[in-house]
Design brief:
CATH class of the largest domain: Alpha Beta
Helix content: 25-40%
CATH architecture of the largest domain: 3-Layer(aba) Sandwich
Distance between the termini: 37 Å
Largest sheet: 6 strands, parallel
Strand order of the largest sheet: 3-2-1-4-5-6
CATH topology of the largest domain: Rossmann fold
Number of helices: 17
Shape: elongated
Order of helices and strands: EHEHEHEHHEHHEHHEEHHHHEHHEEHH
Number of domains: 2
CATH superfamily of the largest domain: Crotonobetainyl-coa:carnitine coa-transferase, domain 1
Strand content: 5-15%
Structural class: alpha/beta
């Protein structure tokens, strides 16, 4: 018999779409919460149509963010649709959304309205930049948060062109901060009996991710980047690439030189102190780059590891997914046609489980409403009136 999951019995009313909100609610569902995904009739979550795919609305982007959820399609522009939500909230625990600030309030689904129905409700939401201030009106989007938080401007080499980081850092980090906030609010409710609001933003999450760099600027007015350290870098080989991190050694440049079969560069007048290495980083890297380009990745990794230097091959995503370590860590979920990344949080009791596949749009509407006390006649009337899709 399996141990119960930690969030079993928690009912989440989920209005989220795209990534920030769905990766939050999927995490809650992965650990037992009953996540009821409220979607627009006919269209659903924007991720259902964000790419062209043979599976249509159940494309890989949507599936990656929406396992362990049930879908109900409602017309939220109708009073009857709002009334349905009110009945769900009356017996729910958490409401989550990532609309622009004020959208839920204009629908009559803000915290004040919902807490009047259920004082224990936890109202959690993510925005782009917060609910007040000069950017509160802007739509929340990952790349905008990268740009406006200072992340995009930070580079290992000032001569490199500006670029967009291709993984949705802001969405994922804000989604995980929203999970943290919800769990904290659930713990607080155990003590006080009352619910509360939980708010995160893409902007705040990106600032928080730069905590070390921000402290250096605020306290010393200095730019700081671990990636720009002179003994750290990414280098092409004859068959790929590798990274070297020259850290935790008394004289990392000497060790790197010996591993690469070079004269001891730490004795070179251009690099014989850390400050000189910083000033002459490009020249140093040109020397390392020319040497590393003469042989294969495995050759250099073996040489570097012999000297206990931090190094790794640069892998493509497909290579990482096929890596034995990925399998040992149980990081892949395969079921029927699904191929998904699992949860990085491994519990010894009540851990991750794939309980349900990502839902078709509106697939669970009747079952959800019946569980929440709607009669067959009420459900049929909602169907006839096109309130329920």
């Amino acid at each position: 018999m399996h141990d119960p999951q930690p969030l079993a019995g928690i009912k989440v009313i989920d209005f989220t779409q795209v990534m920030l909100g769905p990766c939050c609610t999927q995490t809650l569902g992965d650990y037992g919460a009953d996540v009821i995904k409220i979607e627009r009739i006919g269209a659903g979550d924007l991720s259902r149509s964000s790419i062209e795919d043979p599976a249509g609305q159940l494309n890989p982007i949507f599936c990656s963010l929406n396992r362990n959820k049930r879908s109900i399609a409602l017309d939220l522009k109708s009073p009857a649709g709002i009334a349905v939500v009110h009945r769900l909230v009356a017996n729910g625990d958490v409401v989550v959304n990532n609309f622009r600030a004020g959208v839920m309030e204009r629908m009559g689904l803000g915290y004040d309205a919902l807490s009047a129905i259920n004082p224990r409700i936890i109202f959690a939401f993510g925005t782009g930049f917060g609910t007040e201030g000069p950017y509160s009106h802007k739509g929340g989007q990952d790349i905008l948060a990268q740009a406006m938080s200072g992340v995009m401007a930070r580079k290992c080499d000032p001569s490199e062109p500006l670029t967009i980081y291709p993984t949705a850092l802001a969405d994922y980090s804000a989604g995980m901060h929203l999970v943290q906030g919800i769990l904290l609010a659930l713990l607080q409710r155990e003590r006080t009996g009352g619910g509360q609001q939980v708010e995160v933003s893409l902007y705040d999450s990106m600032l928080a991710m730069q905590m070390q760099e921000a402290a250096m600027w605020l306290m010393r007015e200095r730019d700081f980047s671990w990636g720009a350290m002179p003994h750290t870098g990414a280098f092409e080989t004859t068959d790929g690439a590798l990274v070297i991190v020259g850290a935790f050694k008394a004289n990392p440049l000497r060790e790197i030189s010996l591993a690469l079969g070079l004269d001891d560069l730490s004795q070179d007048a251009r690099f014989d102190s850390f400050d000189k290495s910083v000033r002459n980083r490009n020249t140093l890297h040109d020397i390392l780059r020319a040497r590393i380009r003469t042989n294969g990745t495995a050759h250099w990794i073996a040489r570097l590891e012999e000297r206990d230097l931090l190094c790794a091959p640069v892998k493509r995503l497909g290579e990482a997914l096929a890596d034995r370590q990925t399998d040992i860590n149980s990081m892949l979920v395969r079921h029927d046609q699904l191929g998904l990344v699992g949860s990085p949080v491994h519990l010894s009791s009540g851990g991750f489980a794939l309980r349900t596949s990502p839902p078709a749009l509106g697939a669970d509407g009747e079952a959800v409403l019946a569980e929440f006390g709607f009669s067959g006649a009420e459900i049929e009337r909602l169907r006839v009136d096109r309130v329920l899709g």
